[in-house]
Amino acid sequence: ASHCPGGGTGLGPIGSQYCVCKVELSVCGQNLLDRDVTSKSDPFCVLFMEVNGKWVEVSPEAGWISASCGLLLLMSPNDTRIVSSKKITRTLLLGNGKPAGKGMITIAAQELSDNRVITLSMAGRKLDKKDLFGKSDPFLEFYKPGDDGKWMLVHRTEVIKYTLDPVWKPFTVPLVSLCDGDVEKLIKVMCYDYDSDGGHDFIGEFQTSVARMCEAQDAFPVSAITFYGQNKAATAEGQLLGITRDFSFLDYILGGCQLMFTVGIDFTASNGNPRDPSSLHYINPMGTNEYLSAIWAVGQIIQDYDSDKMFPALGFGAQLPPDWKVSHEFAINFNPTNPFCSGVEGIVQAYSACLPHIRFYGPTNFSPIVNHVARFAAQATQQEAASQYFILLIITDGVISDMDETRHAVVQASKLPMSIIIVGVGNADFAAMEFLDGDSRVLRSHTGEEAVRDIVQFVPFRDFRNAPKETLAKAVLAELPQQVVQYFKHQNLPPINSEPA
Questions:
Q1: What is the DSSP track for 179-238?
Q2: What span, in angstroms and rounded, lies between the C-alpha atoms of 402 and 394?
Q3: What PROSITE patterns does this protein map onto (predicted)?
Q4: Of 33, 357, 373, 452, which one has the fewest beta carbons inside 10 Å?
């Protein structure tokens, strides 16, 4: 969740110069209604945020940590007291507004001003056997002391089935969540045997601190701690894998990272004659068309993240004067040595000016323009800190002709500080664009090589024709922050101005 001190409105969907505070919400329930006949309920939480007057679901969380409750009506919108008071308790309501029995919910808010994260690996040896016809199904819970003196759950591991010697997957948790950023603060670790009815059997517990784990992190185990349960011989082993900083998109932007924006425009014949009102390139009396609308919607947001606001604008699929050869990588200002346009206005002016001087042709080849931007992104891989990230916006009306070459180009670009946004205009079949957008499957080149990460976001313009331009911009840029962070994190590149962990 984000909290904007001073009521700042920010720059747009992908970030803000004001919204630089992160707030973690921790949720716990009491006396919830029992919805199962033979066992207890299996409650889960879902966080909804109000967007343009509608409630939109944020990714649901398993369990009750760092989430909000969607099982029952929670609380009125715009209630900012949760942030100011740090903790708020409300009566749970049913959909009809009546109390849900004696059910209560408590939400605690904590500002995540410390961006350090800790990675831990945990194991157990000779745990108690709790199941009558098997071994145990152990899991761990980590607690920190709350302001009210009670222990507060901050992390729960996965359940390891049928074992007395579990090895849990390494996990990463914000240091401020685990111990409020205080490495000397005690942490309580509890071990349970999982039962499907919710009545988990207690195996044992111990207390430690991050400082203690740091003292012994060169040795494994960090500690062989007796679980103070029924079996005194049971031990827990832990290994501190490291404390690092978890930089956000805003950390990189505010640290000085520049988003290098390039536009690629489809001038193939399938768009229609630009002088014909039925053409997708026809500029109507209002001075716009779908290509211009997409350029404005995306460019007006992106330009705030580039200090010089000089953007290359390239075209493809057209015959150019004077020899009328087809080009899939030409500067729309007809200056191949300097294809830069000044701001979004400059792109729009160059686009409008070039239309009468080119002949729409084909085919629809994407790979030349992808490779063009990739060459510059490849040069930026020499950076020692996160200084540049390249964004290619391709606006197109139809099916890709060089699909094998484009797939290969995208797979290679996935290794670079680069993202590709495709906006499909018109009513064509955009199945190929959906294929490039690796949301549902990993993109592979025609040789079988997998993309290192998903860098393509496809959005059909027709879904947003009657929506505010901000809605289109938000959809187009939805995945960009995580793509930027993912690349720099994978390369272990900090923001330009950052302190070591």
A1: HTT-TTS-EEEEEEE--TTS-PEEEEEEEE-HHHHHHTTTSSSS-EEEP-SS-TT-EEEE
A2: 15
A3: C2
A4: 357
Residue 389 near residue 259, CB atoms below 8 Å: yes
Which domain, by its residues, includes 77? Answer: 23-111
Residue 82 · residue 88 · CB < 8 Å: yes
Q: What is the dihedral of CA 185, 190, 196, 198, to 10 degrees?
A: -70
φ/ψ bin of 373: left (φ > 0), alpha (ψ from -120 to 50), beta (otherwise) = alpha
237 and 327 belong to one structural domain: no
Same-domain pairing of 299 and 409? yes
Angle at 244 between CA 154 and CA 481, to 5 degrees: 85
**HSE of 21, CA atoms in CB hemisphere, 13 A:** 12
Task: Summarize pLDDT for 126-141 with one digit per residue, the tens.
Answer: 887 876 677 889 999 9
CB-based contacts of 88: which residues, under 8 Å, 6+ apart? 75, 79, 81, 82, 106, 107
pLDDT tens digits, one per residue of 7-61: 333 334 444 333 445 667 777 788 888 877 777 777 777 777 766 667 777 654 4
pLDDT confidence of residue 485: 92
Q: Which residue type occupies 457?
A: Q
Residues 96 and 128 in one domain: no
| Residues 379 and 366 grouped into a single domain | yes
> From the CA atom positions of the chain, what is the Rg in Å?
27
d(CA 300, CA 289): 16
End residue of a domain, out of 220, 245, 270: 245
Task: Say how many C-beta atoms besides its own lie within 10 A of residue 48's C-beta.
Answer: 15
For the chain, percent helix, then strand, then coil, each to nearest 5?
25, 30, 45
Distance CA 389, CA 10 (A): 21
Cis peptide before 339 (omega within 30 of 0): no
The three-state DSSP-derived secondary structure of 108-174 is EEEECCCCEEEEEEEEEECCCCCCCCCCCCEEEEEEEECCCCCEEEEEECCCCCCCCCCECCCEEEE
pTM assigned to the model: 0.69
Cα 364 to Cα 103: distance, rounded to the nearest angstrom: 60
171 alpha carbon, distance to own chain's centre? 18
CB 453 within 8 A of CB 479: no
Q: How far apart are the first and last CA of the chain?
A: 23
Q: Which residue has the higher pLDDT, 65 or 271?
A: 271
